[in-house]
């Protein structure tokens, strides 16, 4: 019989706090308090006049912003889509249009938000946002689906679907990801995918705003790893699977952090 886990909360990508209760209770409490920024540009006024007001939320990744149009983006709760190039976004006409905005290098769809990643610090959000706003607004008001043939895609197993061949440990890992970890990471404009389990090592891939995020390593080691080991002692480590695009984002973030520190250093 599969062991059952009772989960209370999980650390998010933006801020990791120490557990607030005694270890004996097996209850972990972590905080997440992103700031919500309301758009004050002329474009925002236009949105309000058309009964669509897009809010912008910062993410832990300085190269990513989360856009919330106040309407459902995807029909199925919990499902996400991550696009890192226009050529790989053929199933989403909206993503293709967003990639046409100068500076956009990543488009991530959550249930009720769109996370946009820019290529570098030199790409100015003040210049990009009006075009992003207009693209999202026009597409949503067109009534077209964000993902073409979404019903067919939804019929395919997700990364956390428990398969007949999954053993007890893998099933528990997938349950942890689906029920607690994914929802919290998605609040930060990203997602985490199960990529495999081998000899005590869980392989995960971060998506959206969490890709290359400065706090992603902390999220994996201090948040996800600790939580998984707490409930599944068989787990020895949790590692991130990275693509070439992920490594490119990380390099840009490293440059961003270096320039930020240089500005703060007194001459």
UniProtKB/TrEMBL annotation:
<comment type="similarity">
    <text>Belongs to the NifU family.</text>
</comment>
<protein>
    <recommendedName>
        <fullName>NFU1 iron-sulfur cluster scaffold homolog, mitochondrial</fullName>
    </recommendedName>
</protein>
<dbReference type="InterPro" id="IPR035433">
    <property type="entry name" value="NFU1-like"/>
</dbReference>
<dbReference type="GO" id="GO:0051536">
    <property type="term" value="F:iron-sulfur cluster binding"/>
</dbReference>
<dbReference type="GO" id="GO:0005739">
    <property type="term" value="C:mitochondrion"/>
</dbReference>
<dbReference type="InterPro" id="IPR034904">
    <property type="entry name" value="FSCA_dom_sf"/>
</dbReference>
<dbReference type="Pfam" id="PF01106">
    <property type="entry name" value="NifU"/>
</dbReference>
<dbReference type="GO" id="GO:0016226">
    <property type="term" value="P:iron-sulfur cluster assembly"/>
</dbReference>
<dbReference type="GO" id="GO:0005506">
    <property type="term" value="F:iron ion binding"/>
</dbReference>
<comment type="function">
    <text>Molecular scaffold for [Fe-S] cluster assembly of mitochondrial iron-sulfur proteins.</text>
</comment>
<dbReference type="InterPro" id="IPR014824">
    <property type="entry name" value="Nfu/NifU_N"/>
</dbReference>
<feature type="domain" description="Scaffold protein Nfu/NifU N-terminal">
    <location>
        <begin position="54"/>
        <end position="143"/>
    </location>
</feature>
<dbReference type="InterPro" id="IPR001075">
    <property type="entry name" value="NIF_FeS_clus_asmbl_NifU_C"/>
</dbReference>
<dbReference type="Pfam" id="PF08712">
    <property type="entry name" value="Nfu_N"/>
</dbReference>
<dbReference type="InterPro" id="IPR036498">
    <property type="entry name" value="Nfu/NifU_N_sf"/>
</dbReference>
């Amino acid at each position: 019989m599969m062991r059952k886990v009772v989960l209370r909360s999980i650390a998010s990508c933006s801020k990791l706090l120490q557990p607030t209760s005694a270890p004996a209770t097996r209850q972990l409490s972590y905080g997440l308090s992103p700031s919500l920024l309301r758009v004050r540009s002329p474009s925002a006024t236009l949105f309000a006049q058309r009964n669509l007001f897009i809010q912008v939320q910062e993410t832990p990744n300085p190269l990513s912003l989360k856009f919330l149009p106040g309407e459902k983006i995807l029909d199925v709760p919990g499902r996400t889509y991550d696009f890192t190039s226009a050529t790989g976004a053929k199933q989403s006409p909206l993503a293709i249009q967003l990639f046409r905005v100068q500076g956009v290098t990543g488009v991530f769809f959550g249930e009720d938000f769109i996370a946009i990643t820019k290529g570098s610090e030199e790409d100015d959000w003040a210049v990009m946002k009006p075009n992003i706003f207009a693209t999202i607004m026009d597409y949503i008001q067109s009534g077209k689906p964000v993902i073409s043939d979404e019903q067919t895609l939804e019929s395919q197993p997700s990364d956390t679907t428990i398969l007949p061949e999954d053993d007890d440990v893998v099933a528990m890992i997938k349950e942890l990801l689906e029920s607690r970890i994914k929802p919290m990471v998605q609040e930060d404009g990203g997602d985490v995918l199960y990529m495999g389990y081998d000899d005590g090592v869980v392989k995960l891939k971060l998506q959206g705003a969490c890709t290359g995020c400065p706090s992603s390593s902390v999220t994996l080691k201090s948040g996800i790893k600790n939580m998984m080991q707490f409930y599944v002692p068989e787990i020895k480590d949790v590692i991130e699977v990275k693509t070439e695009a992920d490594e490119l984002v990380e390099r840009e973030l490293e440059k961003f952090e270096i320039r930020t520190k240089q500005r703060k250093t007194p001459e």
